[in-house]
Give the backbone structure.
Amino acid sequence: MSSNTSLLDLIGIEHNKLNFFQELQKNIQELTELNLHSEDQRREIAAILDGITDVMMVLSENLEIISVNHVFEELFPGVNPIGRKCYSLFRHDKKPCSECPAFRALSTNSVCKETAIFRVDGKNMQFDMVASPLKNPDLTENRILIFKRDVTLEKEYQAKFYQAEKMATIGVLAAGVAHEINNPMAAVAGFAEGIQRRLARLDDSVPDDLAEDLNDYTNTILKECLRCQDIVKTLLSFSRPVAADFLPVDFNQVAKDTLRLLDHQFRKRKDIDLHAELSSSLSHIYGDEAQLKQVILNLMTNAIDAVGESGEIHVKTFSTATHVGLKVSDSGCGIPPENKDMLFEPFFTTKSVGRGIGIGLSTCYNIVREHNGEIVVDSEPNQGSCFTVLLPI
Amino acid sequence: MQITKFAIPEIIFGNGSIKYLASCAQRLGAKRVLLVSDAGLEESGWVKQILNILENAKMDCAYFNDVTSNPRDTQIHEGAKLYLEHKADVIIGLGGGSPIDTAKGIATIVSNGGQISDYEGANRISHPLPPMIFIPTTAGGGSDVSQYAIITDTKRQVKMSIISRSLVPNISIIDPDLLITKSRKLILSSAVDALTHAIESYVSRLASPFTESQALNAIKLITENLKPAADTKDPEALTNLSIASTAAGMSFSNAGLGIGHAVAHSLGGRYDVMHGMTLPILLPAVMRFNISSCKTKMAIIARTINGAHICSTDIKADQVCNTLQHMFEDLGIPMRLRDILPDNNHLEEICHLAVQDACAVPNPREADWSDLLNICNEAW
């Protein structure tokens, strides 16, 4: 090495004492480059994050919001979420929701999913939530990353699909039943009428009391036959295809017709008192009769299920300046608070297997919404529930 | 005229100037200092005094004293380890050439890594060194102002010349008071080392007006003050030797040396003899070898030593070697290699190594290994 040393090397014109200032400059240059690089990375990550259409939040262990993405701002315009509690924003509640997946994610150190309905800006919105724990040894505290995807529309479409399918099935069934029942009914009615005609001609040869009895019986047969035909007719109208046009509807009549369908149920369950209080003068509304019947039917079925063996059910129609309404209240078991948000969720049910599949209220909700109306629930556990349907005039 | 360069550190000179050590170190950002010195200076009390100065300034100080008269690569690496363990930020070298060269080596390793032999030769250091403050105590080596560090490679038994502008310290504090405790032998050997620096750099092919004036000043001051300084420790003479050694250091640091130092390094690497002892023996023979290439300069050296006499350049140039030899003999300095070396079996090998020493490069007359062997034999 040293044998290559030349005079020019010894003079070292191009070499000078390296000092810390140079080191500093070198460091500054390196840092500047690194900074540019990380800024590029930051922009790229920001672009990726901006591309996410779900609400994204980073929460502290006690569910305080640390950061959110831009989708959050679309959902809560003008709200500064930083430092606020997640549940106070989404539920207006003072304590964490019982089903919150964040805690589970932290305790199990795994990704946890949950679905919930939140009332945001006066609308019920359904969200799929995914909570991932952010455990980092560099952080003093654990954090949770939560994605909330708005699935309200998907669930609505899903419910509509099931409803349409159910209606189509019932339609086929009803048409078949109607056909099968109408024929024997026509025969029964025809023969009853035949007996009445014969009876008129045998006026003299039949004792008066027997003739009176026969008249009475056949009248009853005919009346019941007529009633059967009415039921079948109602059944047919109820099972009409969904996509009917909105027509002027007498809501009282709809309620009456629906209650008649339930006559049988109430006759069987003597310990349930039904109090119907149908207002005499209701304005007509625009609507789909079959769908509205479905709403009342579902609410009534739920009420019957809620009261169980014995109790009271009140059905009331009323009108206000802008709406006609129907109130179905029962003295049943009521709804626990933790279930309130899920009431209108498709397939949410507290009923045992075979008693329902949990699309009743979600269907009601969709139908009422299509009529630009609303459903209000008022319930306390063990104090009964009251569902109020309001439809605009 | 070729383009030259003149690089020197900040120099604080004067009796009592070591009191500025603490403030100088603090200005360089020192919080934890590594002090490099040796047992001789501990004995004389200067190490204690320096440690007190640093302690009073509330600076944390690690002390490294595993330094021999020809500092070894292994010692450098030990010192670098201590520096890193101590998380030191500034290196202070206190002593003659050995502690200061050790400090330079340590500084090189702590910021550049690797082995010290990686940096042998010129301009191999690529990262800045930690701030360095040197306090010379011998008035000789000139290492405190130079860009040279001479370290022994223990495996090859060679003294390596490491040359880099980065080896120039940030500050050199030259306090002639420190010379008071030196032995006569040490004063003599270091002054002869300085004189050799001055003469070799003066005739060097890299000499420039900036180095020549320093060299001549050093030659004059040393020849005038060597005897009183050595014999009576006359304070003024010691101060003048300090000035001379610093001037010689500035000169050789920029103009380079010659074959005298190249051979001395090889001898030192092989036999671990005191650097300053070999130089007065070699110098007359080296000068005789060089005369033909730098007659005028040799005459100027002669005039500087002997004063103005009217005689020819040739005669003066011839005289200078004898003058020096007589001066050294008067002072009782051994003047034969056989006086200080155990044997002459390895001279050929030593001369082969010496031609490769970077110090040989600017020698005024090209010399191959056999030329060097002739010089050694002449001096034997």
Q: What stands out?
A: The two ends of chain A are 102 Å apart (CA to CA).
